[in-house]
C-alpha cells in the first residue's frame, strides 16, 4: 500500500510519522469515540449525519469537541484530495487526550482531546461481491456494554464476533440479547416479512446508524412499510428477506442465518431496491 497522508492534532503527516502518546486515554482506557464516513466519487456521504452523531457521542461522555464543523469538513476534504480517494472511507477518532499518566479518573478539564483521521482506499465498494451474492451470517450472544448508542472505540467484542464468523466460514455475525437480535457486529440488522421492513427501534441497545436513518427515510418515501421493533432469530430464519446497513456496506442482503437459507439464497427485491435507492440518493447529496 502506498504511504498515506494522515491527520493528527492539527498536522498532516505521512502515516509512519504520525504519533500519539502512550498515555493517551484512547490507548489506555478505550476512552474515545469514532466515525466512519463513506467517500463515493471523491465526495462525502452524509457528512452532516456523522457530525451530529459525533457531537452526541462526545456529549454523552462529557468530552470536548476537538474542532468545529467547518474545520472537520475541511480536514475530511483535504484527506480525500491528498490521498486521491475516489471510493473509500474516512476514519475519525477523538479521545479524551493525553493524561500524562495512567489514572481511572478523567484528566483535568484543560486536557486537549486527541483528534486523528485517516483514509481507507476501497475501490469497488459499490460493486462489492458480498452485496452481489448476499451475506451469510451466524448469530452470537451480544456481550457488549449497555451504551451501544455511543460510538466508542471499545470494539473488542465486535472483533471477537467477526472472528467467530470467520471461524464458522461465514461473512459476519448478528448479536442476540434476550432472544432478540440487537444489531450486526458493525451494522444495523433488518428483516422483511410480507412486504414490511422490520428493524429494532433506537435505544441504548444499538448504534443509531446514519445509514439506517437514510434507508428508513427512503423506504417510507417509496411507500414501503416500516416497523421499528426487535425480532428473534427464529423470525429472521422465517423471513422473506434480511439485510444490514452501514456506511461501508450500504445496504447488503443477508441470504443465510445460522445455516438456514432465506428467499432462495439470493438477494431479495426489497434489499436490492433499497441498495439502489440508497446509493443513488447518497451520490446526489454527497458534498
Ligand atoms: N460501523 N452498528 C454498529 C455496531 C456499527 O459499528 C455500525 C457502523 C453501524 C452502522 O452505522 P452507520 O450506518 O452509521 O455506519 C451499526 C462502522 C462502519 C465501523 O465500525 O466501521
Shape annotation: globular
Tell me the CATH superfamily of the largest domain: D-amino Acid Aminotransferase, subunit A, domain 2
Kindly provide the name of the CATH class of the largest domain: Alpha Beta
Structural class: alpha+beta
pLDDT below 50 for ≥5 consecutive residues: which ranges? none
How many structural units, i.e. domains?
A: 2
Quick summary of this structure?
The protein is α+β, with helices and mostly antiparallel strands. It has two domains: 5-121, Aminotransferase class 4, branched-chain amino acid transferase, N-terminal domain (D-amino Acid Aminotransferase, Chain A, domain 1, 2-Layer Sandwich), CATH 3.30.470.10; 129-285, D-amino Acid Aminotransferase, subunit A, domain 2 (D-amino Acid Aminotransferase, Chain A, domain 2, Alpha-Beta Barrel).
Describe the structure.
- There is one protein chain.
- It is built from eight helices and 15 strands.
- The chain is an alpha+beta fold and 287 residues long.
- The model has no long low-confidence stretch (mean pLDDT 97).
- It has two domains: 117 residues, D-amino Acid Aminotransferase, Chain A, domain 1, CATH 3.30.470.10; 157 residues, Alpha-Beta Barrel (D-amino Acid Aminotransferase, Chain A, domain 2).
- The site of N-(5'-phosphopyridoxyl)-D-alanine (PDD) has 14 residues, from α6 and β13.
Amino acid at each position: 500500500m502506498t504511504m498515506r497522508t494522515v491527520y493528527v492534532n492539527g498536522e498532516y503527516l505521512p502515516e509512519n510519522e504520525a504519533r500519539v502518546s502512550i498515555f493517551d486515554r484512547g490507548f489506555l482506557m478505550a476512552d474515545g469515540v469514532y466515525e466512519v464516513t463513506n467517500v463515493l466519487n471523491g465526495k462525502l456521504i452524509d457528512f452532516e449525519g456523522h457530525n451530529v452523531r459525533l457531537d452526541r457521542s462526545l456529549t454523552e461522555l462529557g468530552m470536548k469537541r476537538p474542532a468545529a464543523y467547518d474545520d472537520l469538513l475541511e480536514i475530511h476534504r483535504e484527506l480525500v484530495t491528498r490521498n486521491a480517494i475516489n471510493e473509500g472511507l474516512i476514519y475519525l477518532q477523538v479521545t479524551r487526550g493525553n493524561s500524562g499518566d495512567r489514572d481511572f479518573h478523567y484528566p483535568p478539564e484543560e486536557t486537549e482531546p486527541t483528534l486523528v483521521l485517516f483514509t481507507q482506499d476501497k475501490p469497488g465498494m459499490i460493486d462489492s461481491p458480498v452485496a452481489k451474492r448476499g451475506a451469510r451470517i451466524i448469530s452470537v450472544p451480544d456481550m457488549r456494554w449497555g451504551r451501544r448508542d455511543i460510538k466508542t472505540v471499545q470494539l473488542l467484542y465486535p472483533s471477537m464476533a467477526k472472528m467467530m464468523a470467520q471461524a464458522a466460514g461465514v461473512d459476519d455475525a448478528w448479536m442476540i440479547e434476550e432472544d432478540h437480535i440487537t444489531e450486526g457486529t458493525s451494522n444495523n440488522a433488518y428483516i422483511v416479512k410480507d412486504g414490511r421492513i422490520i428493524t429494532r427501534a433506537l435505544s441504548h441497545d444499538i448504534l443509531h446508524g446514519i445509514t439506517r436513518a437514510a434507508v428508513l427515510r427512503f423506504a417510507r418515501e417509496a411507500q414501503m412499510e416500516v416497523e421499528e421493533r426487535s425480532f428473534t432469530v427464529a423470525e429472521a430464519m422465517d423471513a422473506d428477506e434480511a439485510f444490514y446497513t452501514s456506511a461501508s456496506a450500504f445496504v447488503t442482503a443477508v441470504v443465510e442465518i445460522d445455516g438456514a437459507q432465506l428467499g432462495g439464497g439470493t438477494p431479495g427485491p426489497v434489499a436490492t431496491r433499497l441498495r439502489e435507492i440508497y446509493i443513488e440518493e447518497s451520490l446526489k447529496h454527497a458534498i
